[in-house]
Amino acid sequence: MAKHALWLDLHYSAWATERLLKAACALTAEELGQDLHNSHRSVIATLRHMYGSEEFWIGRLLAGWLPPLAEIGGPDEAPNETPEQILEGLMRDWPPLWRDLNQWYGALTEENLARELPCRLPDGCDFHFARWQLLRHMVNHSTLHRGQVTGMLRALGKQPPNGDLMSYYLAQR
């Protein structure tokens, strides 16, 4: 049951993010890049941050190891691309990332999901994160930023998509 529940969370997260990406496609370049003084400043910067985080965590899970905690995260690099080019890249690159995660996750047993990966803490000690904990972190992180992008869309006078979990359940019936 736990593996299935987490699987639903992962699919919900991808579904809700995809809806937000489609809503972002209706924005102008100025709206995408406008500093709204929230989260990572703009809609496009926040979406790029979300993607970068998911790409990082999925990559680490597929590789089966974690770098030292002090090396995780850090400032997002500003690409030399227009907001429209960044959005186009996200629309292209995110679905294959979700497919890779799905393929990997589908092959896991409950035991493999509980497998722990060591991570060196800044104080030099090791801490072990279970794979399921890292996946829950990834879903939670994306949910936080989807909420922020929803607020940004409203600040721009736009109607954000319904990304509610109950709406996902209803859409799956």
Rg, rounded, reads 17 Å
Low-pLDDT ranges = none
CATH homologous superfamily descriptor = dinb family like domain
Total domain modules? 1
Structure description:
- This protein is mainly alpha-helical and 173 residues long.
- The protein has seven helices and two strands.
- The chain has helices spanning 2-24, 29-33, 43-63, 83-106, 110-113, 131-155, 165-171, and strands spanning 116-120, 126-130.
- The chain has a two-stranded antiparallel sheet with strand order 1-2.
Describe this structure in a few short sentences.
This protein is mainly alpha-helical. The chain has a single domain, classed as Four Helix Bundle (Hemerythrin (Met), subunit A) (Up-down Bundle). The chain is built from 7 helices and 2 strands; from the N terminus they run H-H-H-H-H-E-E-H-H.
List the helices and strands and how they pair.
Layout: H1 2-24, H2 29-33, H3 43-63, H4 83-106, H5 110-113, E1 116-120, E2 126-130, H6 131-155, H7 165-171
Antiparallel strand pairs: 1-2
Helix pairs in contact: 1-4, 1-6, 3-4, 3-6
Which features would summarize this protein structure in a list?
173 residues; mainly alpha; Four Helix Bundle (Hemerythrin (Met), subunit A); two-stranded antiparallel ribbon; 7 helices
